[in-house]
Amino acid sequence: MSIERLDINDATGAITSRCVAYGDMVHIGGITARDTCGDVAAQMRDILDTVDGYLSRTGATRTDVLTVQVWIKDMALFADMTAVWNDWVDPCLLYT
User: Could you give the strand order of the β-sheet that contains 25-28, starting from the edge strand earlier in sequence?
Assistant: First the structure.
């Protein structure tokens, strides 16, 4: 099996990838909203659109997601972020 690196960035001198696939495992990390002018819901939708793109490019789906780590600057925005997440995530994963 080979390692597939998507969206390689070496601008900082260190080679980094936002998405790395190996076999049937996909690691996605360091995703931020492309447009930071929107509210937390708009930014979350933008991030999840990016994640959808990586899942599609690697042959994975939302049902294959094992864990997600989200950083939020203000917990007062948590409910708005969670509403977008709950609309995106496979409902079977919410209650298993």
Answer: 3-9, 16-22, 25-28
**Three-class DSSP labels, the chain:** CCEEEEEEECCCCCCEEEEEEECCEEEECCCCCCCCCCCHHHHHHHHHHHHHHHHHHHCCCHHHCCCCCCCCCCHHHHHHHHHHHHHHCCHHHHCC
Residue 16's pLDDT band (cuts 50, 70, 90)? confident
C-alpha to C-alpha distance for 40 and 33, rounded to whole angstroms:
9
Residues 49-81 pLDDT 10s: 999 999 999 999 998 888 888 999 999 999 999
Q: Say if CB 40 and CB 78 are below 8 A apart.
A: no
